[in-house]
């Protein structure tokens, strides 16, 4: 099975000295880029087979952290597409320590969007007709609209962010990991200091651009079994109130 | 000569698709960590040879960019200490393309600080007495107090930043690359869109911490030969006005 190897760098760790979740998401998506290119449907391939410029967009992402690696540790990332439908392609990730311990896993849903119209389009035929590698146990497809998307949301913390130049990627919109950084920066101090992320589940709803003003909100998930361990997050355009991202996170006491 | 190899990842590039300067600084400092550890004066060694906890702190850094590499390109980083004095150790960096083209170089000045007292201390004897590897052409030591540190400074742009959790490193203070990100985000749009950084020269004056409010300022360098190509930057504590970072940047029209 194809595997990418990453030795963790100092700046990929946080104040606790452990791999930070945004750094891991960057690594996973880099691995996804490489894997898609190997299968012939990387960013460059999309444009080549189409009249108009197309891009990949992340719609759903759920990451579960089992053990946090530290500075200097080498991790192995396996990623592979699991299902393909008319509009969506699904991709799993497994992160292993060198001794084979499962450190994290993730599953994700991607769509193709038209760079010009800025809307989703059906997957091009050459992708829909892909013969996917078979994998013993794909993670179940994430629901397109998870329950927390419509759960009651009473903000207990709110911040405003202006989208900066360095948060914009080559698609000329905000890189999807930037939202996760903003979401983490809008969590209570006590949680950041004494807990670690056990799980993050993300729904990307629309894009945002350079200089946009965004409102980042935090709420307790009162519908959860253990509300004290669970948070809801919302990022919206500050003016229109249009939803950009919804998320649920689960936190556990760190070692 | 020892050499680290890095294949550029998607998220290390900016909206132009080229390696971003903060991403390169992260890579260079990672390479410096590894090199210091190989020479026996890495972060871990500092503490081992001392009664009190010590840390490395960057005081001066100047980077010159000759050619910007792009996504997927492999770069080679060479770094080595060049001079050692009572309080300071100097380190150079060279960044090469695979065909040997010089892409960037940098030189830097580091000191050791006491984690407890948060002040600089003389370099421990085992570092002062190091036999440094000899290199054909070390870059000249940067002046401790460069001329732009006392140049007239009339802000044309100003932003306020609150230090977030993800900007804090294991020393419990702001990571030095975070300041460079804030400095870039406080540059006029036209410069970011149409130009590229040719040179950045940094003076780190004091540290800052989680939740500190910082004022980031931009000025034209009227003392420069070509003021339109040169900018001055200043980051200070918002309340006390205490200087944290001063910088000069030079920008050129990008290809």
From TrEMBL, chains A, B:
**Annotated signal sequence range:** none
Domain Acyl-ACP thioesterase-like C-terminal spans what residues? 158-252
Enumerate the spans annotated as Acyl-ACP thioesterase N-terminal hotdog domain.
Answer: 4-127
Tell me the keywords, alphabetical order.
Fatty acid biosynthesis, Fatty acid metabolism, Hydrolase, Lipid biosynthesis, Lipid metabolism, Transit peptide
What InterPro entries has UniProt attached to this entry?
Acyl-ACP_TE_C, Acyl-ACP_thioesterase_NHD, FATA/B, HotDog_dom_sf
Note the Pfam families from the entry. Answer: Acyl-ACP_TE, Acyl-ACP_TE_C
Q: Name one GO molecular function term.
A: fatty acyl-[ACP] hydrolase activity
**Ribosomal protein as UniProt keyword:** no
Family, per entry:
Belongs to the acyl-ACP thioesterase family.
Q: State what protein this is by name.
A: Acyl-[acyl-carrier-protein] thioesterase
Organism encoding this protein = Spirosoma taeanense
Lineage of the organism: Bacteria, Pseudomonadati, Bacteroidota, Cytophagia, Cytophagales
């Amino acid at each position: 099975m194809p595997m990418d190897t990453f030795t963790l760098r100092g700046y990929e760790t946080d104040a606790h000295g452990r791999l930070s979740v945004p750094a891991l998401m960057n690594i996973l998506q880099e691995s996804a880029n490489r894997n898609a290119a190997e299968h012939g449907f990387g960013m460059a391939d999309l444009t080549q087979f189409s009249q108009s410029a197309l891009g990949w967009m992340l719609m759903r992402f759920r990451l579960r952290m089992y053990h946090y690696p530290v500075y200097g540790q080498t991790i192995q990332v396996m990623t592979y597409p699991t299902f393909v439908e008319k509009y969506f392609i699904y991709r799993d990730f497994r992160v292993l320590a060198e001794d084979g311990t499962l450190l994290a896993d993730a599953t994700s849903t991607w769509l193709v969007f038209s760079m010009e119209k800025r809307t989703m389009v059906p997957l091009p035929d050459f992708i829909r007709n892909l013969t996917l590698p078979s994998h013993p146990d794909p993670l179940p497809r994430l629901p397109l609209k998870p329950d927390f998307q419509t759960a009651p949301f009473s903000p207990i913390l709110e911040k405003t962010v202006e989208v900066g130049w360095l948060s914009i990627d080559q698609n000329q919109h905000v890189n999807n990991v930037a939202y996760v950084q903003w979401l983490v920066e809008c969590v209570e101090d006590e949680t950041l200091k004494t807990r670690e992320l056990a799980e993050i589940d993300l729904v990307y709803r629309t894009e945002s651009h350079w200089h946009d003003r965004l409102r980042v909100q935090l709420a307790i998930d009162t519908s959860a079994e253990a509300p004290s361990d669970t948070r809801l997050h919302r990022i919206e355009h500050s003016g229109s109130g249009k939803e950009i991202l919804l998320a649920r996170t689960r936190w556990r006491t760190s070692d």
